[in-house]
Amino acid sequence: MSKKYYRFFWGFLKKQENWLNKMADKGYRLIRTGRSWYEFEDCEPGKYRYSVEFVGEKSKQNAEEYASFLEDFGYRVLFKNLNLDYSVGKAIFRPWAKKGGKIATTGGSYNKEILLVEKENDGKPFELHTTDEDIREYKKTVRKPWIFSIVTILSVVLISFGSIFVTRALGIESGRSAIRIGYIGSEGYSSWTGRYSSLDGTMKRSIHPKTDMLHIDVTTESGTISIEIQDADGNVIFDEHDIGTDAFDIAVSGKVVVRITADSHKGSFDIH
């Protein structure tokens, strides 16, 4: 009789290894795996030991050769995924991998980044890496994707904060809590345009007009749209609700903040 358990350990290899060994101690032997599940069959408690080996830096051929090498020693080997990507036709660049393993594809080494290695319990520690040099090299291999991921995340955060700093330095404010369908628009320093099949919610943006006159064009095919404009001091200088197809010219003196509120509006706006 088999039992299936749903678990996912992300990149925590030792945690996965400890869990498999605890299951073996309870009398469960691993027989097959999926993306997020493990299937076991009953066995004598403690009969098997498991080790989890990272092979994500290897090419498909090298990983399979390594698995065969372990099987020649009498071990049983299962490939397992390190992520939860269910897409097909996937290709990913792994700059931390070795030559031949830098491009991983679906059907290749992608989603086969770790090996679950099983041996019969002989009372000795299950260690695939025994020499100090081998252990050091393996630890460096395991650390590389983690370091790359951390650097990538930090880079994204820094770029995001940099973008916020630049927009604030330029005096640009923006915000959106709207659902936009079929939206095509442009958000410039001195203009804002949008055309869409449906706009529902609120959007806000600052505009720095090039002249002392701001022109607004609105086209309404269905739904409703309202526009409010405040000057740099927060005074409302324009406030129109349920605008049909219409055009307006507003006298301004510098930066303004435009707030657009729409209810299933189909059409367009052009503010410049």
Outline:
The chain is an alpha+beta fold. The protein has three helices and 15 strands.
Helix- and strand-based class? alpha+beta
**Proportion in β-strands:** 35-45%
Query: What's the total count of β strands?
Result: 15
Give the overall form.
elongated
What distance lies between the first and last C-alpha atoms, to the nearest angstrom? 71 Å
Number of helices: 3
Binned, the helix content reads 10-25%
Query: Over all CA atoms, what is the radius of gyration?
Result: 30 Å
N to C succession of SSEs = EHEEEHEEEEHEEEEEEE
Number of domains: 2
Question: How does the major sheet shape up?
Answer: 7 strands, antiparallel
Structure description:
This protein is an alpha+beta fold and 272 residues long. It folds into 2 domains: 150 residues, no CATH class; 98 residues, Sandwich (Jelly Rolls). The chain has 3 helices and 15 strands. The strands form 4 sheets. Strands 9, 10, 11, 12, 13, 14 and 15 form a 7-stranded antiparallel sheet that branches. The chain is elongated and about 85 Å long. It starts with a strand and ends with a strand. About 2% of the residues have low confidence.
